[in-house]
Amino acid sequence: MKSLGIIAEFNPFHQGHQYLIEEAMKQTDSEVCVVVMSGNFMQRGSFAVSDKWIRAEAAVKKGVNLVVELPTIFACNSAEYFAKGGVEVLEGFGCIDYLAFGSENGNLRKLQSAADFLKENDEVLHCQIQALMKQGNSYPRARQIAAEELQPDFDANLISEPNNILALEYLKQLKTLKPFTVKRKGSGYHQSASMIRKELTAENPQKFAVMNKTYWELVAAKILQTDSKRLEEIFSAGEGLGNKLKNEIRYASTAEQLIERIKSKAYTYSRICRLLTQVLLDIDRTTVTNAAGYIRILAFDNIGAKFIKEVKKRDCAALPIITNINKELPDYKEIQATLEKDILASDLYHIITKKDLYDYSDFVVKPYMKL
User: Fold this and answer.
1) Which residues contact 310 (CB under 8 A, 6 or more apart)?
2) Which H helix or E strand runs over 55?
3) Beta bridge partners of 234
4) 206 contacts: CB under 8 Å, gap ≥ 6
5) Which distant-in-sequence residues (6+ apart) come within 8 Å of 196 by Cβ?
6) What is the spatial distance between Cα 52 and Cα 40, in angstroms, rounded to a whole number?
7) Could you tell me which of 40, 133, 134 has the C-alpha nearest to residue 144?
8) Across the strands, what pairs with 5?
9) Distance, CA of 170 to CA of 84 (rounded, Å)
10) Are the C-beta atoms of residues 246 and 261 closer than 8 Å to each other?
11) Backbone phi and psi for residue 4, each to the nearest 5 degrees, phi listed first
């Protein structure tokens, strides 16, 4: 079965996602669409508008054949690690043909050339970026200057537009998957996820106000309980951010206020957002470095079930396939530390959303099956 992989958040699923899936499936002549989806916390550090089981079910009802979870330690991380985790899961199946992704550029040849340039010059660019940031440039601006100094005709839009940035990181990570990109249509064609989230918030402001307040209380408590040295070990910390969290926590009464007090040219808004969630989940550098991958099924239809059966029959998967953590977790000790972060993320998410910790536990909820 020719198969297509996609890495997504579906926060929530919208027409742009539908367009990407339909175009990619048609253009690659694929029979199966497999999505690696973020769990309950997003790449920029925010919590999802609805839990992973609901979002996975919605995706399958919209035509995705199989949804598996992107481990939390990658899901709420920088573009580089978000891409690394997603590609690792898809290639871990051992038989998926394509990785499809949206991009503002839409030109795969140009994207691949830029990705090769960034990968080949990674160390040089890193040193130059650090030097430029010490001169007062923000990370995005420093990266742009460094790239253009090394290659004067470099297209800065490739590292300034969000989908292009992710596209480049996917291309840098690929080993066996064939890339396929669909040019992203603007908001005039498809309503964006951020626009939908704003509408949902406007429709039920009290609900989201309570969620934000509870998230903040959990994060604040964690920061107050953790010493500066340990905070500095959290993955997105470093450069004194641990101390800044401790010094500023008593001057803020919301997560937004704390982020605004800390963010600067050196510490971007997105980085601080991710840092707060990583503090909450205790995701440090060791956790990410030692992460062991797995394929954890969240939802599927008949085609997805047939695909999984074929993978198991061919014995081609390089990663363990998890459908019931109660039975399978003890058999795969190497993935326990990574998987436990997914379980913790779900528990904390359900505290934030005021859902029953037992009924919605990862130990209780089963994958959705569309038969």
Assistant:
1) 1, 95
2) helix 52-61
3) 284
4) none
5) 12, 14
6) 6
7) 133
8) 34, 99
9) 7
10) no
11) -125, 135
Q: How far apart are CA 221 and CA 5, in angstroms?
A: 39
> How is residue 370 written in tokens?
């569309």
Per-residue pLDDT of the chain (371 residues; tens, 9 = 90+): 899 999 999 999 999 999 999 999 999 999 999 999 999 999 999 999 999 999 999 999 999 999 999 999 999 999 999 999 999 999 999 999 999 999 999 999 999 999 999 999 999 999 999 999 888 888 889 999 999 999 999 998 899 999 999 999 999 999 999 999 999 876 545 667 888 888 988 899 999 999 999 999 999 999 999 999 999 999 999 889 999 999 999 999 999 999 999 998 888 999 999 999 999 999 999 999 999 999 999 999 999 999 999 999 999 999 999 999 998 888 899 999 999 999 999 999 999 999 999 999 999 999 999 98
Give residues with Cβ within 8 angstroms of 355, minimum separation 6. 51
Q: Which of 169, 255, 244, 163 is nearest to 209 (CA)?
A: 255
Q: What is the pTM of this model?
A: 0.95
- Here the tokens at position 152 are 């004067």
Give CA separation, 124 vs 54, 103, 129, 143, 265, in Å: 44, 26, 9, 11, 21
Identity at 151, one-letter amino acid code: Q
Residue 133 CA to residue 121 CA, distance in Å, equals 18
Contact 321, 297 (CB under 8 A): yes
Cβ–Cβ < 8 Å for 223, 249: yes
Q: Which residue's entry shows tokens 């990658």?
A: 74
Start-to-end Cα distance in the chain: 19
Query: Distance between CA 56 and CA 60 in Å, rounded?
Result: 6
Which tokens belong to 319? Answer: 């990663």
Q: How many CB atoms lie within 10 A of CB 87?
A: 24
